[in-house]
User: What shape does this take?
Amino acid sequence: MKPFFLFVNCLTACLLLGSVWAQRPNIVWLNVEDMSPRLGCYGDFTVPTPHIDRLAREGTLYTNVFTTAGVCAPSRNAIATGRVQTSNGGHNMRTLSNTYPEKTGLPKQYSVVMPVGVKHFAEYLRAAGYYCTNNAKTDYQFEETLAIWDENGPQAHYKNRANNQPFFAMINCGITHESQVWARKNNPLRVSPDKVKLPPYYPDTDSVRLDVARFYSNIYEMDEWVGEQIKELEEAGLLENTIVMFWSDHGDGLPYVKREITHRGLRVPFIVRNPTGSKGNKNTDLISAIDWAPTVLSLAGIKPPNFMQGRAFLGKYANKKPHSYVFGAADRFDSEYDRVRSVSDGRFQYVYSFYPNKPRYMDVEYRKQQASMRDILRLKEAGKLNEVQMQWFLPTKPQEALFDTQTDPHQLVNLIDNPKYNNELARFRKVFQSWQKSVMDYGAIPEKELVAQMWNGDKQPPITAQPTVTIQGTYAAINCATAGASVVYKILLPNTPDPKRWEVYTQPVLLKNGAHIKTIAQRIGYKPSIEVMN
Assistant: This one.
């Protein structure tokens, strides 16, 4: 009779799991790159964006959302962990590709070692039964461990999940990336260059107008991509059981916007279409990109882990009190170093420069592939930029700056010496100093020294300890001596091919007759352990 009862218990567990799955919403992230809120639903009608506007009509449009960096990899490090990148050591752009060792003295690439216990939020979703896919950009400043995604790459798709299994799908679109301004130069323009509005910090030249028009045209194409994703969900019968979140990783991929940590570099579109939520609403709460991960966990019914600095603003664990301030940081960009921090309450922004002897402009070679950037530099050398346009290139910058974005949306007037704003200045200084004390800002440590600390003084990253498997009756328990390591496993059955995917280990695993278990452990930033099989 025991096998019968075991079968019934397993069946009951499966039915209960299916019931739990059915109660949890699917969640899709439609994330785009390098784009400020240049959309119809945000009041910019330069090009039509009907599909994104539809999401706003059928959901909630958030108007006061900021990333923590003005460039992708540090920003995505913060998004992935729910922590400001400077408190992870993931603040330098970038670490996993070319660190320009001939100028920086760094290893050509390195994977950031996260503080003990800090993990990618998708690991918590997988542990709770979600099928997690990423298509396809990662760029977190660390190599992905096997615990993060069920599928990761250009072919990753939520359709490959088990029946009724809830899914989290991160779908990335690179059409609006800075590089596409020159890569798509032969595509049709969707707006005439003479129709675009230029901010006062740009000279009015043909190349500047053309690049801005191209950027808007790329937004038009990106909107069509959004429409395709919505259509696919609709045709699969999933749209009304799926929370769709649309966002950008930082501001526009244009000169003096990307890489900046003023509002124009950090403010982004953020829209949530929740089938059970309100429709056509606008939310003005102050939100940081470090809030997105805990919010996804909260919507899935998962309590955000304590290491996250962000706050859930939706779902079971939503924090009813919005932020009073959000923070930003800029450090190394490619081969060029700086260290700047910002604090914003949504209207006023305080900017602190640790190296005021350096100009605002950083001579990043990558950005010079844009014709507008080359044109601006040419005019600068010819002495043909006006006073506002030259602000970017002055040989030094103020150590402190205070801006009122309500009266000065382009943040061109520093109020630091205006006595009318002494109270605001004192308030922001206090908040900034308190923030610096409350979080470990690894930007204070020279990068070479920081890497040496991550690698324990060695010339290569540490190796995660080999996991140990202990068989307790019909269960296998797995342990790893490396603090903060994640553990994955596969169940190997006789005469059966190996499973394609690794499972996240959270508790002892039942082994059926003749089954074996294979396991790997890895702490983020460490090399993985060797495979162990019992």
Residues 340-454 form one domain.
